[in-house]
């Protein structure tokens, strides 16, 4: 459909920036200090713009549902020879959906933050970072040029770093921020290499031009398959950094040291899905590289089961959710890897709802327990936090894939896609099913350890226990509704027929940007009917979730049942020793290299060169000062000799004079 | 030897004499004399070339040189007076305080 020019994308982009400027510049200037902003003022200055952006996003969403994408190009950003980059924003079906999620969930999390951070100092700084994050994330999804996407990509990375290290006086938290930043740098290098190869091949960074070119390549087959594979692999490396996949996932669990609403917004709902968005945006390119897709599917599956199994042994409620996020992102990449981009986006959306809900719920729990995050010191909180319990229960049911909650639809669709699509792999399907079971178990375990069973908290904590204020409960309930019902946007064909021919809304919606894949009723990779997979995974989810809830009501770890698996439990608790392995294989050699550079290279080579130049000049000067003997006549003599040479030279060389 | 060459040879002789005075004698009065001699050698050369070539510009140049030379000797003599006041002599080997 014809693109429409509109100012809405610009409004949506700039409103959060306004929030950033208000909290970052204007209010501190008026108050004459950064720490003097009152929490309520800071929250209002940040929440109103993002809420206004959400309203604009609704208008934009309605506009694109009737017509073509909204575009605006305020100015030309770069023009260097053949490189032309416009500052061009575009809201199409894909970015429109993400803009809705970012501004909508973003607004809810701003509201939640207003309650959660009300006792903190320096709230102005917190909200200015949060607004800046929303701005960057919106630029990431609305930018119609790859460099703009990269701009947003780096911006969200920066804000993630700033917010993880928000409590920077705690060295461990500051280090977690640095870890996230550095792990992302590795991925960004891959992203840049991929982007440059892409520019070399296409000759433009514009997504419209790229999409057209990919379609042309697909039709004519005139493309360098190796180059395409290399470019897609490089871009995927970028995605593994930002979306926390093996091997670069290590930063995400540590990122939980930031404030909990940040974990909900950045490290669950929006930023970490940037890699999935990028792949869905460039789906035409990835379709041309089946080998890369295979790699993506297997990396996604490996990450999903790896992180899921770690999640089952963690004691920290936020760590459980962090590993769960890594695992769910693995699911999204599994979907991308089999070519089911629309399903990946579907899971991205439902995950944004239920994971944001779970994180905010955990934030509410932590808030109530005076900052305690260890689930072994909780238990029995249902009585004290009824609203938090209810909403978190819905979130847990959704993530576990209990039928008719949102996670059921998206996860089931991913699982079935892995065997029903021609690009599927049965191994990925099996890993996916196991991970889905693990998900249900650890979610049930988290719920049981937090809310059910005996009360394991101290009397001191009990005296402070309180249900969160309405400001925090409102976002929880809104997200609970979305997490419960969001799945009906993507009802599978099989069920849709029974529900009065309900179509797969999301698939249809995304069809102009992301090709719609119709799943056959009979899988091609394994002889399974869709109904078998659906019923099987539902039963599995229900059984495993129940097991998790009942099994961990009063016990905290698997070893309470099977003492024989203590070694495995230990490995899981230590996250497969990945951090230790990286420390040994990468960090320690690097530190040694750095020490060598500092002690040997710097002292001998660099200092030697610098001091050598100085000493040389000094010695040369000492020799030369003998010439300056203070006798006027010797100077005159030298001058006369020089003149004589000049004259002779002129006569000999310059015959033409 | 043509008649045009005679003044040039004389000029060369005068110039060499002046230069040797500047380079070899220690007395700064003689130094100034040498400079004056060199200037006048150049004047002689200019005038005779101008005469031989039938052009006026060499002669005009000489007037400028004479003017500048007058100014130069005035400055030179005043430096000389100050030299005497500061070092008690006018020989150049006494004024070597700028040794490096």
Please describe what this structure looks like.
The complex is a heterodimer of chains A (657) and B (100). In chain A, strand 2 and strand 3 form a beta hairpin. In chain A, strands 1-2-3 form a 3-stranded mixed sheet. Chain A has 26 helices and 3 strands. Chain A has helices spanning 8-31, 39-66, 93-116, 123-142, 146-164, 171-202, 207-220, 225-242, 251-254, 260-269, 274-281, 283-287, 290-311, 317-337, 341-368, 386-400, 406-420, 426-451, 459-464, 470-485, 493-498, 505-510, 530-551, 566-573, 578-624, 632-653; strands spanning 4-5, 70-80, 83-91. Chain A is mainly alpha-helical and 657 residues long. The longest helix of chain A is centred in the last third of the chain and has 47 residues, at 578-624. The relative contact order of chain A is 0.07. The N and C termini of chain A lie far apart (79 Å). Among the domains of chain A are: 1-144; 579-653. Chain B is an all-alpha fold and 100 residues long. Chain B has one domain (5-89): Helix Hairpins, CATH 1.10.287.3510. Chain B has helices at 5-24, 28-53, 57-87. In chain B, helix 1 (5-24) runs antiparallel to helix 2 and helix 2 (28-53) runs antiparallel to helix 3 (57-87). The A-B interface holds A 625-633, 636-637, 640 and B 19, 22-24, 26, 31, 92-93, 95-100.
């Amino acid at each position: 459909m014809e693109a429409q020019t509109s100012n809405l994308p610009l409004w949506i982009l700039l409103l959060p920036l306004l929030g950033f400027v208000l909290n970052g510049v204007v209010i501190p200037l008026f108050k004459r200090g950064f720490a003097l902003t009152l929490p309520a003022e800071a929250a209002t200055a940040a929440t109103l713009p993002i809420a206004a952006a959400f309203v604009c996003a609704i208008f934009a969403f309605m506009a694109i549902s009737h017509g073509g994408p909204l575009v605006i190009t305020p100015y030309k950003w770069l023009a260097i020879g053949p490189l032309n980059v416009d500052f061009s924003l575009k809201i199409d079906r894909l970015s429109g959906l993400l803009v809705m999620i970012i501004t909508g969930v973003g607004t809810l999390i701003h509201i939640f933050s207003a309650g959660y951070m009300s006792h903190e100092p320096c709230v102005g700084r917190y909200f200015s970072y949060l607004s800046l994050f929303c701005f960057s994330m919106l630029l990431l999804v609305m930018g119609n040029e790859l460099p703009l996407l990269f701009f947003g990509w780096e911006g969200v990375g920066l804000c993630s770093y700033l917010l993880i290290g928000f409590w920077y006086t705690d060295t461990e938290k500051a280090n977690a921020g640095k870890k996230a930043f550095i792990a992302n740098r590795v991925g960004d290098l891959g992203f840049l290499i991929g982007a440059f190869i892409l520019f070399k091949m296409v000759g433009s960074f514009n997504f419209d031009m790229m999409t057209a070119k990919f379609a042309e390549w697909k039709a004519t087959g005139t493309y360098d398959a190796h180059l395409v594979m290399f470019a897609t692999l490089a871009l995927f490396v970028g995605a593994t950094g930002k979306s926390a996949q093996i091997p670069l996932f290590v930063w995400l669990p540590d990122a939980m040291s930031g404030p909990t609403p940040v974990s909900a917004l950045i490290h669950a709902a929006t930023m970490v899905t940037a890699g999935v968005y990028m792949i869905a945006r460039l789906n035409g390119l990835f379709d041309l590289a089946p080998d890369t897709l295979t790699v993506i599917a297997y990396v996604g599956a490996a990450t999903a089961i790896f992180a899921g199994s770690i999640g089952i042994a963690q004691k920290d409620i936020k760590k459980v959710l962090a590993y769960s996020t890594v695992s769910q992102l693995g699911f999204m990449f599994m979907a991308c890897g089999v070519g089911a981009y629309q399903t990946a986006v579907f899971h991205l959306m439902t995950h944004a709802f239920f994971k944001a809900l779970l994180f905010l719920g955990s934030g509410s729990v932590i808030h109530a327990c005076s900052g305690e995050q260890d689930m072994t010191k909780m238990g029995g909180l249902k009585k004290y936090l009824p609203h938090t319990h209810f909403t978190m229960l819905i979130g847990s049911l959704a993530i576990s894939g209990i039928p008719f909650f949102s996670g059921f639809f998206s996860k089931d669709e991913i699982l079935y896609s892995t065997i029903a699509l021609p690009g599927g792999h049965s191994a990925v399907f099996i890993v996916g099913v196991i991970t889905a079971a693990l998900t249900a178990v650890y979610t049930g375990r988290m719920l049981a350890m937090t809310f059910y069973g005996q009360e394991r908290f101290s009397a001191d904590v009990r005296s402070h226990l309180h249900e969160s204020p309405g400001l925090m409960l409102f976002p929880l309930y809104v997200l609970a509704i979305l997490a419960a019902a969001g799945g009906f946007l993507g009802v599978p064909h099989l069920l849709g027929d029974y529900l009065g021919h309900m179509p797969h809304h999301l698939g249809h919606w995304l069809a102009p940007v992301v090709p719609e894949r119709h799943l056959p009723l009979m899988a091609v990779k394994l002889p399974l009917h869709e109904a078998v997979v659906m019923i099987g995974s539902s039963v599995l989810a229900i059984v495993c979730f129940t097991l998790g809830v009942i099994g961990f009501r009063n016990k905290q770890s698997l070893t309470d049942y099977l003492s024989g698996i203590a070694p495995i439990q230990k490995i899981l608790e230590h996250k497969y020793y990945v951090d230790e392995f990286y420390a040994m294989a990468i960090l320690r050699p690097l530190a040694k290299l750095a020490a060598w550079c500092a002690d040997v290279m710097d002292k001998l080579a660099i200092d030697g060169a610098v001091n050598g130049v100085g000493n040389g000049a000094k010695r040369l000067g000492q020799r030369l000062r003998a010439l300056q003997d203070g006798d006027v006549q010797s100077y005159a003599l030298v001058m006369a000799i020089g003149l004589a040479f000049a004259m002779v030279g002129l006569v000999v060389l310059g015959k033409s004079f | 030897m043509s008649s045009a060459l005679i003044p040039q040879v004389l000029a060369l002789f005068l110039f060499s004499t002046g230069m040797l005075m500047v380079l070899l004698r220690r007395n700064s009065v003689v130094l100034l004399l040498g400079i004056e001699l060199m200037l006048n050698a150049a004047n002689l050369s200019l005038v005779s070339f101008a005469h031989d070539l039938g052009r006026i510009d060499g002669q005009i140049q000489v007037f400028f040189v004479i003017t500048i030379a007058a100014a130069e000797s005035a400055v030179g003599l005043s430096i000389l007076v100050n030299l005497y006041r500061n070092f008690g002599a006018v020989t150049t080997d006494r004024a070597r305080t700028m040794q490096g």
